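I am hoping you can look over what I have pasted underneath with an eye to the fold:
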Amino acid sequence: MATLQLLQSSVLAKGGHFSFSARKQPPWPWRGGVRMGLREDGPSVAVVGVTGAVGQEFLRVLSDRDFPYHSIKMLASARSAGKPLSFEGREYLIEELKESSFEGVDIALFSAGGSISKKFGPIAVHLGSVVVDNSSAFRMDEGVPLVIPEVNPEAMAHIKLGSGKGALIANPNCSTIICLMAATPLHRHAKVLRMVVSTYQAASGAGAAAMEELEQQTREVLEGKKPTCKIFNQQYAFNLFSHNAPIVSNGYNEEEMKLVKETRKIWNDPNVRVTATCIRVPVMRAHAESVNLQFEKPLDEDTAREILKNAAGVVVIDDRSSNRFPTPLEVSSKDDVAVGRIRSDLSQTGNHGLDIFICGDQIRKGAALNAIQIAEKLL
């Protein structure tokens, strides 16, 4: 999957034709001779940043889930404008993102970086679009819902499609989404007082260029060459290092502080104590997280396991006898977040603590899928 994405990006960058297909046979969903997705009663959709890794995944998820749309605009920078793109059996031309791009657009899916979102998000809202933004630009703004549909759908209940009023909805950070998919069902049962998170984050979190660099560095190191370091300032292949986000005054980096602040907002609990250490690891796609939880009420590991087995969007992989637990590889390109290593924290008494290990696809549930699920809530 990662190699396919890199090839698609390369073709576009060289001015070639990008044929998008979410399925192999057939390459778009047909039912009774009618192409699904394209429907007269569906909303008009715009995908901003369509040539990026997450933008490509937006299209894949839209197709996989038969998301209904009346029309769809493929928006990107001037560099990509005019290039052809095939989606669900129909040819499109990628359009340059402009202020006028959102006229008549019901839902705008943004994944083009914070600066683009800050400039064009409010413009789209003013023109009546509901913007689902994947950047960090608006996440902590008061009045902007920060939503994981399985966790806090009520935060966006006041936003109605077709009301004539535009709105902003923020997609949380990928690490926050993956963490809270597993932690929230337990939090609802016993209330989390403190959460300690260590993340092991894949190249996908830094975009297609980082994935390509990891692949290139791996070849270079195996061939005894000096690795190319353009995206990161140090060797990534066969190495790991502190997340490359800027360090803030308290010694945490911005990625770690996102977990802290976003968890409090999503759970609507300013008092929950969260600390995080975020690490880049040489994995192509899908993040892993080790999470320690302290609860207000007792919660034993067997009850926790049953809660997680019944949680939406979560799959339990917790086979102690064969030492089989979640891995990034087996959740890559999958919708569900996998959780395992479910065990009582020996450092806490009275079943007031648990350790769990989580893996989730950063591009899928950590970005594109969550955004499309938000859009589905608007229908």
